[in-house]
Amino acid sequence: MINRNILKHVHAHNITEEELYDAYKLFFGTLVSEPRLKILNLLKNGKKNVTELINELKMDQTLVSHNLRRLKRCGFVSSKNKEKFRYYSINNRTIKPLMETIDKHMSQYCIHILRTMKGGDE
Question: Does the residue 105 lie in any domain?
Fold first, then answer.
């Protein structure tokens, strides 16, 4: 069943159920990308500019910028200009707690699956 808050928004903006599920796919699709997950995990510890992200992630500028654009468009991060740099921050209200919940869930339910797949103990 779909959450009432989402339904209110859907009805207020005349969004179809199909469009709603497209939004779910966009949201979860944003989390599928390893580079985006790495960026989010770095930003959990504080704001960073593109150069700092490039250096810490060992990725090229185009890849970092492309993924930041998707993260920003979907509300996962925000940016602020400070002097000659643009600093990116994780959305502390929604995405940071979500990432913490995902980390807890993975440590309890998913990590053991990787060990099993690699032939280790369960």
Answer: yes
The range of the structural domain enclosing residue 68 comes to 33-117
pLDDT tens, 39-54?
A: 999 999 999 999 999 9
3-state secondary structure of 85: strand
pTM attached to this predicted model: 0.85
CATH of the domain at 51: 1.10.10.10
Judgement on whether residues 7 and 64 belong to the same structural domain of the protein: no
**Residue 55: C-alpha distances to residues 39, 48, 67, 68, 69 (Å):** 12, 11, 15, 15, 18
Per-residue pLDDT tens digits for 67-95: 999 999 999 999 999 999 999 999 999 99
